[in-house]
Design brief:
single chain, alpha/beta, seven-stranded mixed sheet, three-stranded antiparallel sheet, about 35% helix, binds pyridoxal-5'-phosphate
Length: about 375
């Protein structure tokens, strides 16, 4: 049975897995303690639950539990990483390298740091969305403290070559930060083999609750130090104060455990469905894929539909199929996507593009329905 509307906007947020909700519920009511209350059993229960969640989160990315800082989400983690590094190291090194197609949480944090006196290089991308590694290496200076490159792009799904980037960062004794919000839980991410020093991710992009995320901060080889941006009770080793969101963190932990066990299966399923959708739509004249077709997340497809206004199309499908023209953060403004513009698309082509974001709960019936609806609109 097909249930409408169909949700194909899993890069904006994912539905929460019912198993995650089940794990969270007792922590709203029965086990409501403050994880920082060390004098009674209510506090100990909460602390124990956070400890377990921290292990589950760390295990998914091959980190140590004490390298995980819980935050309110990836926006906060991005701000904490960039501003925290700037504040810690700016007396000696204040040059940052990032990329024009990063998430706004990274770009706007970098613009803020620019006002504070940092020097920022915004690298362009090639027309497949990937950065040029030679250009990256050439832009490193003696004052470069951090390279910030996202793992997977939220609009086109393109995967930057993180291992090669980290090798370049190491060679020049520079730190590597990656916003991996779209990658963690979808594809294997390993902070050791990938050589990442700081990394952001968020529960609600991987079937967990909204309002909770993490920043991974490497503790050895090298030991990375950042200055906290929220002062208070000294929670999270003094890097991020504030009473911990225990139910959210428990849900995040459960979501990570589920992804660790099921990500391979989810990726295989979404890749087959994504390819089916894409291959059907590519048969229509004037349809093109945006971004590198191989180096890409398995669950995303960003397509341009020549001579078609994506906003109008979404409006006509809106009651049946939930889609997006790009990131949720910019879709309110009806501006052409800056990510697609960075790939070299014209305003017109960028405004003719749609992002299909599949997920764990997407079914073949939904993809077949979507294909036929789009074909009706496009071929008529
Ligand atoms: C969603 C997203 C964010 C923001 O995450 P929140 O947890 O919603 O703050 C940051 N970066 C990328 C790449 C994202 O996809």
């Amino acid at each position: 049975m097909l249930h409408l509307p169909i949700y194909l906007d899993n890069n904006a947020t994912t539905p929460m897995d019912p198993r995650v909700l089940e794990a969270m519920i007792p922590f709203f009511t029965k086990y409501f303690g403050n994880a920082a209350s060390s004098s009674h059993t209510f506090g100990w229960q909460a602390e124990e639950a956070v400890k377990k969640a921290r292990e589950q989160v760390a295990a998914l990315i091959n980190a140590e539990p004490n390298e995980i800082i819980f935050t309110s989400g990836a926006t906060e983690s991005d701000n904490l990483a960039l501003k925290g590094i700037f504040e810690m190291y700016s007396a000696k090194e204040n040059h940052f390298i990032t990329v024009k197609t990063e998430h706004k949480a990274v770009l706007d944090s970098c613009l803020h740091l620019e006002k504070m006196g940092a020097e920022i290089t915004f690298l362009p991308v090639k027309n497949d969305g990937l950065i040029d590694l030679t250009q990256l290496e050439n832009s490193i200076k003696p004052t470069t403290v951090l390279i910030s490159v996202m793992y997977a792009n939220n609009e086109i799904g393109v995967l930057q070559p993180i291992k090669e980037i980290s090798a370049i960062a190491k060679k020049h004794d520079t730190l590597l930060f990656s916003d991996a919000t779209q990658a963690v839980g979808k594809i294997p991410v390993d902070v050791i083999t990938d050589g990442i020093d700081l990394m952001s991710f968020s529960a609600h992009k991987m079937y967990g609750p909204k309002g909770v995320g993490a920043l991974y901060v490497r503790r050895k080889n090298p030991r990375v130090r950042i200055t906290g941006q929220i002062d208070g009770g000294g929670h999270e080793r003094g890097i991020r104060s504030g009473t911990l969101n225990v139910p959210g963190i428990v849900g995040f932990g459960k979501a990570c455990e589920l992804c660790r066990n099921e990500m391979k299966k989810d990726a295989e399923k979404t890749r087959i469905l994504r390819d089916k959708l894409e291959n059907e739509l590519l048969k229509i004249k004037g349809v093109e894929i945006n971004g590198n077709r191989q180096q890409r997340l398995p669950n995303v497809s960003n397509l341009s539909f020549k001579n078609l206004n994506a906003a109008d199309l979404m409006r006509s499908l809106g009651q049946k199929i939930a889609l997006s023209s790009g990131s949720a953060c910019t879709s309110a403004t009806h501006q052409p996507s800056f990510v697609l513009k960075a790939l070299g698309l014209s305003d017109e082509m960028a405004l003719s593009s749609l992002r299909f974001g599949l997920g764990r709960f997407t079914t073949e019936e939904e993809i077949d329905f979507t294909t036929s609806q789009l074909r009706d609109v496009l071929v008529s």
